[in-house]
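User: Thanks for the earlier help. One more: Molybdenum ABC transporter ATP-binding protein. Can you show the sequence and predicted structure together?

Assistant: Of course, both are below.
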Amino acid sequence: MLSVDLHHAFAGFTLDARFEAPPGLTVLFGASGSGKTTVINAVAGLLMPDRGRIAAGDWVLLDTERKLRLKPHQRRLGYIFQDARLFPHLTVKQNLNYGAWFAPKDAPREDMGRVVELLGIGPLLDRRPGALSGGEKQRVAIGRALLSAPKLILADEPLSALDETRKAEILPYFERLRDEVAVPILYVSHSASEVARLATTIVVMEGGKVVRQGAAAKVLGDPDVLPMGAREAGAVLTVSVKTHHADGLTELDAGGAPLFLPQIAQAPGQKVRVRIAAHDVILSRSRPEGLSALNILSGVVQQMQPHEGAVIVAIDTQAGRVLARITGRSAQALDLAPGVAIHAIVKTVAVASSDIGAVAAPA
Ligand SMILES: Nc1ncnc2c1ncn2[C@@H]1O[C@H](COP(=O)(O)OP(=O)(O)OP(=O)(O)O)[C@@H](O)[C@H]1O
């Protein structure tokens, strides 16, 4: 359990943030100036808050009531920044060893071989950072952070400097980090697909306060919150791969209903997270026939929320919560209201591969 309780007053800005997160990856989300960096700085020990307590499990980094304030180098944190910050004169292997060098001698350590395998960096070990792509550098930076035997990993917009191709290359490694390494991760991000794919928990900040916290699917599926705004709204479904078809489509089992997506890499039986963008969902009162769209999820309208000139409709389907963003005129024409039975139609090609993520099989 990651537990953060911080109070700090700057002239003109007060941070009053409190959240608790279960194991996994916790995304700190909020508009510019909402206080995310201030939280990260307090966790890192770069800012000494007026009052507060920060703990990762039984590892207490700060407890002002008990006058406990670990210095930054005592906090056992692994950092992953936007730029990888590797030492240019050292090889990849030496950069990794540098991380291990910081691990306390008696700390249970990640095995170098396992970390190298986890991040797929075996072929890079003898190269220097100058001969690595941005994505490869970032994988090495993750490895270096892991090998320092951290109690908590801080990732401050680690993908924001990378282009879409490199991001797609790194996201699976963060998924593995989340699912295979028992170290909590506190992750700042502005990206809808990153949050949808990676977050176990989402903490939404506004004006120095935590306005919402909870499991990712719950927060992203709540039309009252919409941390990304109405245009980027989208719910996340956890579904399992059923079969791969010869025509390049993958069929998923979405709570008993078939969901077809462009072919994905996961094997039948594996669970995946799929982000369904609210603007890609069409609603119909009757079950449509003779339609090119392959995906029809049936459900019941739970809530309707006006947002930025449109209406966000929350529908509970057999596959889970789906959001649809439609015009007020369409909502009226369909006579939508909570309790109404509805069919949500999702175009197969509307789901981008960056919106589909792996989920570890339950242990
Ligand atoms: N040392 C400081 N002195 C005074 N005000 C500060 C200080 N550091 C941060 N602030 C203020 O605290 C507020 C929150 O800043 P913070 O950098 O934490 O926001 P953020 O959510 O990380 O934003 P961004 O997404 O732009 O990085 C801002 O209004 C900022 O001006």
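User: Great, one quick takeaway?

Assistant: The pocket of adenosine-5'-triphosphate is lined by residues 10, 13, 30, 32-38 (CB under 6 Å).
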